[in-house]
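for the writeup, i need someone to sanity check this before i put it in the appendix. the sequnce is what the collaborator sent (i think, or maybe the updated version? ugh). structure was predicted straight from it, no edits. if anything looks off just tell me and ill rerun, i have time this weekend
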Amino acid sequence: MISVGQSLPAGEFTIFTTEGKQTLDTQALFAGKKVVLFAVPGAFTPTCSNAHLPGYVVKADEFSAKGVDAIYCLSVNDAFVMKAWGEAQNAQAITMLADGDASWTRALGLEKETGSFGGVRAQRFALIAEDGLVTALNVEAPGKFEVSDADSLLALLG
């Protein structure tokens, strides 16, 4: 599993922007930026939709005020699902990253097998990275939502 002090692995994500569907790599997403990335097991699932993503949506301005250049929401879903979920949650301030084949989630060592629920998914976690280097990492215990929420990450930013 990735840890504080390590560089994020290389990878690509599909996102939707005003220009349509695009593929962005980790260099474009993380180089020269202070970012918060949080991962959810699945778009439109209860905890993810009722608490995890909404917390970051509501607090986006507070992250910006603390010097965060971008907030990324990662899920092992396709880009169309991530786009629809972002729209449903009014998440315009959040970049919705689709890791459709879980390759980047696996490279982080933060995947989990959910069986018939959806196969390989991301564990629930959040991290802060500066210029691609992990400076903080909060990984939830199975079934918990206590350390990857927006308030916990804001507290880490001081």
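The CA atoms of residues 76 and 102 lie 6 Å apart. The longest helix spans residues 46-58.
thx in advance!!
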